[in-house]
Amino acid sequence: MTLENSRMKIGIIGTGHIGKTLVIRLSEAGHQVKVANSRGPQSIEADLLINGAQPATTEEAIADADVVILSIPLMRIPDIAPLIRNLPAQTTVVDTSNYYPHRDDRIKSIDEGQVESLWVTEVLSRPVVKAWNAIGSHSFTAKSSPVNSTDRIAIPVAADNEEHKEIGMMLVQQTGFDAKYSGTLAESWRQQPGSPSYCTDLTYEELGPALAAAEKNRLPKRRDIAIEAILERMGDSKTNPSADYLVSLNRVLFM
Questions:
Q1: Burial letters for 174-197: b for 16+ Cβ neighbours within 10 Å, e otherwise?
Q2: Which range among 28-37, 95-104, 222-231 shows the weakest confidence by mean pLDDT?
Q3: What count of other Cβ atoms lies within 10 Å of the Cβ of residue 40?
Q4: Is the dihedral of CA 166, 9, 13, 47 positive or negative?
Q5: At residue 213, does pLDDT exceed 70?
Q6: Distance CA 13, CA 243 (A)
Q7: Interacting residues of 143 by C-beta distance below 8 A, sequence separation 6+
């Protein structure tokens, strides 16, 4: 059986906006998906299970999984680390999180210049694949398109392990987006918040130059300016920024 048509056991931890779409898309692609969150299987919404995904505890979701996707806030990764450390070496672990100082106050030990993915590998004591962190939740839900579409959005994928990289890129493709290998985990800062590839909805042809153009020392300042601009517009139904505004803002500030 080739990788492209293999039916994998996938455990998805987290039912935020990105996690929900992952559950629906990957179960629709034919994978055996189990989904868990911090509130327990009884809290999993029925619309996430329409393609055959099963609600589970975290322990049940990761048991015997070929792939475990962590779609949880970065600050919660230390909480789940003891379970992830015990997974077999061949299990592919994918991390979708990002670091935001104003939100992740439990882990302020992260240095502004540190690569998020390397911090995650240290906490989990194992390599990960970094994917789905550089696309906004609205774009991920609403802007998928068929293979070979001229305007298909691309998602960067970083990894050190070759086999895990191929699996991560295959799954990105199956969620309706082109997968672009962005480099090793040490280079994954190129897809962190503030970079030209972060939530700017670029095509495969556009994403390569954007990754190359990233300037590591400028990422934190650009990220924080974007946060301030978003917060300044928030308040009520008339002023909350739209998804299109967020993409436009990121393009202006990051590219």
A1: bbbbbbbebbebeebbbbbbbbbb
A2: 95-104
A3: 12
A4: positive
A5: yes
A6: 25
A7: 153, 201
78-102: average pLDDT: 93
Number of Cβ atoms within 10 Å of the Cβ of 221: 12
Helix count and strand count (H, E) for the chain:
9, 8
What the block records as the tokens of 193 is 């918040």
Query: For residue 180, how far is the Cα from the chain centroid?
Result: 14
Encoded amino acid at 163, one letter: E
Hey, is 145 helix, strand or coil? coil
In this structure, the number of other CB atoms found within 10 A of the CB of residue 51 comes to 15
Global pTM exceeds 0.70: yes
User: Do 95 and 57 contact (CB within 8 A), yes or no?
Assistant: no
Instruction: Return the percentage of the chain with pLDDT > 70, whole number.
Output: 91
